[in-house]
Design a protein that fits this description.
Layout: E1 16-26, H1 28-37, H2 42-46, H3 50-55, E2 66-79, E3 82-92, H4 98-112, E4 115-119, H5 126-136, E5 159-161, H6 162-167, H7 175-182, H8 195-200, H9 204-228, H10 235-249, H11 256-281
Parallel strand pairs: 1-4, 4-5
Antiparallel strand pairs: 1-2, 2-3
């Protein structure tokens, strides 16, 4: 029996792959409750060295004291002809709060029933953030995400952290680093360190575009990784599919033109390569 090497790591052959990314910010109300529980006063923090402040949760809130303000997920069918993007969903401020954002995501996963989540670094970030937010809101995980109850059982969790898949034992890289190596568009809306400024300024459309941009980059890297492992879809076709999806469904976003150019450049490079091959095969003219 033949097994597609690109699918060996998956379980139950889910009908859909869902690539997601969350944007978060500090929840000062939650952090205030934590400080009260610790009986922490400003005097306790006054003499901390700057290096210590970065690692002391009383001074620098850790992930339980963050809230999800935007969540984007791309739904792809996963059939014999490879991954095909179907729709992009995004929820976020100011239309809805964290509970509403996570609730909408879980409801969609319940409707899809058979899903494989994919993230970049989500094992340490997006997934625990979503689970904690759901618990805080009194939500329930759908059966399609039941594997997230056992996140350490990677093969049964229903979640692929593409970053850990790709880097193996190497130091975990940024999404933009790997994208730069492969030539995939990344971080098109703004610099990563400026996203919190967009939140403070209430530029929520741009914050949502940041989440969507990371989803698209992660999706393209997933397609390339599948190809490396023996998938049936060429890198050219994968790029064409994603670029066409962005042009059709996300043309209003600031990243759309860059993805269109990426798709055009991939096609142009492929045509140039084929032309060069044909020229090399042509018989030399007689002098």
């Amino acid at each position: 029996m033949y097994l597609d090497p690109a699918r060996i790591w998956k379980t139950d052959k889910p009908s859909y792959v869902v690539v997601l990314d969350a944007e978060t910010r500090y929840d000062h109300a939650v952090h205030g409750r934590y400080l009260a529980a610790e009986r922490c006063t400003p005097a306790d923090l006054a003499d901390l060295h700057p290096r210590d402040r970065r690692h002391d949760p009383r001074a620098t809130p850790r992930w339980p004291c963050r809230q999800i303000v935007a969540l984007s997920w791309l739904v792809l069918t996963d059939g014999d002809d490879g991954l095909r993007p179907v729709r992009m969903e995004t929820r976020g401020c100011p239309e809805t709060d964290e509970a509403g954002i996570v609730g909408a995501f879980l409801a969609d996963m319940d409707r899809l029933q058979h899903v494989q989540l994919t993230t970049w670094g989500g094992f340490h970030a997006d997934v625990p953030q979503i689970l904690l937010a759901a618990a805080a809101a009194g939500l329930r995980l759908p059966t399609s995400l039941a594997g997230l109850h056992s996140p350490w059982r990677r093969e049964a969790s229903g979640h692929c952290d593409l970053m850990t898949e790709m880097c193996a034992g190497a130091r975990p890289p940024h999404l933009a680093e790997v994208a730069a190596k492969i030539g995939v568009p990344a971080k098109l809306t703004c610099r990563p360190d400026l996203v919190s400024g967009l939140m403070d300024q209430g530029k929520w459309s741009s914050v949502k575009a940041v989440a969507e941009g990371d989803v698209l980059t992660t999706c393209m890297l997933l397609m390339r990784w599948r190809h490396l492992l023996g998938g049936t879809v060429s890198t050219l076709e994968a790029a064409r599919r994603l670029a066409a999806f962005v042009a059709e469904h996300c043309g209003h976003r600031p990243y759309a033109a860059d993805w269109q150019k990426y798709g055009d450049d991939i096609v142009a490079a492929a045509l140039a390569a084929e032309t060069q091959k044909l020229a090399a095969l042509a018989p030399a003219s007689c002098g």
